Q: What sequence folds into this?
């Protein structure tokens, strides 16, 4: 083990852990993968898609029929308000296309189901855990550290929730770690296969999530200076960038307007700094507690400065690269992202879990030398690892970071607080219990009342409904100007921001077409966004608070009500049901 450095060792050394062996041990690896697979796949299709998932799923459907993610098909337009995410040919330009083709593969294999839409991204989550294990073992030759890092990632509540989405998060986590792994190989052995691999990894990350690539790339470039690479490594990296440029050039042309637009995050320095503070809160609560990261960083920096070596060891390089990627990622997203959402920095969680595993192993190594008996050190390491995986009690109260009353845009609600609950327990409850949201109720209402090719007006949840019922003509307050006839069905939830506009539109339809509507009012759980994975807005259980939900059915269709139970309680039960 490197003298004076509990967090690093030279390539020929082995971490001083008694149970360590040089040969690869498959059982710990398979155990970690099994846990990750259960958490990522169990009951994957139970919760209804939420709005952003619906966007990905609908555009994936268009990939299968049109060959590319087309925003408009028939009367149905993918539009979430604000500036359109498509060009004049209705090609989707707001996001790179990788996630849509990956989701389309799931639909092609398993059919048009919720499980099929989410499956490829959940698989990417499991592959990320597997890659992290193999990456750590390759460079530390320690099954203990590899299993610890991979388990911390596999059991991270927020990582699992995001990988269970039909959205790019799981895919980006995998490509981001792949990029990091290939970059490390490149700077260690700048052979042709690694600079070609680096170019491919850069292109894969661009077509998956160019936002993440933009914010971590400066960290990778700066690391070339800090890890003291030679001329051959720099030339190899330059070749990789050249290959990547050739591969991403079509994407640059397609997304140029999006890439060159002003950042959607902080509109001034204060808002950007506030966004960064929120990311620091997330970093502290979900990535690495500052109580561990701060002393470990101090020890590492002191050792590097004291040694004065011209060559930086292989493991030291990885620590520097991962640390810079995290710092630039957290900072960059506070500027370019529209809000300080955790989803935007999820792809970097594998770097943080690697660092956390190395930090814990380093402290364990120090404890084993004298202060504690071996069994006590093992017990302490196990207890700390379990607490880090299943709780966030080591993190600091968020009120020390953000003035929540003064800046409501960045408010971290109490469910984000570090001392109030065990989030992993909430995750297990979610996997084993049903959840009711407005999107499910809307789908059940549409299945009961709307026939093929009929028009539906909705205040929220149009994209999930568009995925499940592509045979309908679906409009929202943002797209209602394109509606050419009175809606056959209209649904609105009074916890939506747009409910008033739907009511106004119905009044216009009454005047314009001379038609009338009957209505049914029930109560639904107040979870407008459904399965959104953000810790500020995510519900592990169906909320007990409810909001009015109004179903408007055109009077000439009112006989369809006779198909259903006449009791409001029975009707509510019917529309709550998972079908």
A:
């Amino acid at each position: 083990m490197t003298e004076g450095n509990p967090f690093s060792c030279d390539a020929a050394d082995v971490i001083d852990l008694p149970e360590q062996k040089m040969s690869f041990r498959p059982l710990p690896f398979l155990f970690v993968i099994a846990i990750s697979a259960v958490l990522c796949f169990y009951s994957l299709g139970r919760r209804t898609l939420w709005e952003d998932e619906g966007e990905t799923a609908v555009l994936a459907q268009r990939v299968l029929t049109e060959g590319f993610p087309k925003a408009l098909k028939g009367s149905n337009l993918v539009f979430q308000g604000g500036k359109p995410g498509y060009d004049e040919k209705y090609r989707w330009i707001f996001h790179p296309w990788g996630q849509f083709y990956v989701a389309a593969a799931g639909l092609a294999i398993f059919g048009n189901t919720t499980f099929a839409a989410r499956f490829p991204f959940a698989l990417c989550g499991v592959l990320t855990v597997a890659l992290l294990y193999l990456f750590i073992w390759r460079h530390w030759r320690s099954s203990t550290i590899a299993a610890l890092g991979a388990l911390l990632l596999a059991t991270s509540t927020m990582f699992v929730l995001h990988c269970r989405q039909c959205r790019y998060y799981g895919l980006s986590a995998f490509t981001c770690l792949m990029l990091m792994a290939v970059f490390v190989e490149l700077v260690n052995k700048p052979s042709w296969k690694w600079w070609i691999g680096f170019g491919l990894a850069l292109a894969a990350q661009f077509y998956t999530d160019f936002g993440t690539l933009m914010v971590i790339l400066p960290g990778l470039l700066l690391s070339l200076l800090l890890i003291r690479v030679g001329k051959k490594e720099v030339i190899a990296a330059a070749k990789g960038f050249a290959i990547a440029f050739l591969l991403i050039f079509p994407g640059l042309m397609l997304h140029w307007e999006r890439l060159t637009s002003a950042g959607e995050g902080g509109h001034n320095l204060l808002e950007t700094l506030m966004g960064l503070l929120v990311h620091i809160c997330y970093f502290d609560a979900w990535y690495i507690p500052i109580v561990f990261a701060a002393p470990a960083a101090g020890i590492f920096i002191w050792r590097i400065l004291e040694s004065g070596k011209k060559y930086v060891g292989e493991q030291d390089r990885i620590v520097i690269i991962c640390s810079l990627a995290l710092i630039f990622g957290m900072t960059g997203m506070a500027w370019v992202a529209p809000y300080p959402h955790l989803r935007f920095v999820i792809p970097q969680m594998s770097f943080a879990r690697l660092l956390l595993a190395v930090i814990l192993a380093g402290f364990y190594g120090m404890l084993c030398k004298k202060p504690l008996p071996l069994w006590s050190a093992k017990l302490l390491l196990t207890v700390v690892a379990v607490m880090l995986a299943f709780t966030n009690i080591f993190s600091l109260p968020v009120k020390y970071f953000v003035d929540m009353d003064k800046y409501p845009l960045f408010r971290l609600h109490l469910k984000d607080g570090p001392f109030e609950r065990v989030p992993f327990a909430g995750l297990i409850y979610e996997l084993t219990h049903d959840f009711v949201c407005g999107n499910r109720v809307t789908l059940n209402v549409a299945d009961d009342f709307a026939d093929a090719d009929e028009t539906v007006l909705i205040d929220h949840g149009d994209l999930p409904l568009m995925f499940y019922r592509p045979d309908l003509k679906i409009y929202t307050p943002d797209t209602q100007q394109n509606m050419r006839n009175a809606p056959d069905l209209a649904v609105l939830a009074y916890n939506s921001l747009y409910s008033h506009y739907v009511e106004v539109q119905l009044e216009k339809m009454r005047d314009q077409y001379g038609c009338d509507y009957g209505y049914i009012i029930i109560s639904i759980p107040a979870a407008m966004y459904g399965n959104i994975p953000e810790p500020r807005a995510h519900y592990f259980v169906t909320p007990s608070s409810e909001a009015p939900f109004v179903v408007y059915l055109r009077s000439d269709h009112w006989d369809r009500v006779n198909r259903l139970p006449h009791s409001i309680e029975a009707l509510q039960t019917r529309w709550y049901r998972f079908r």
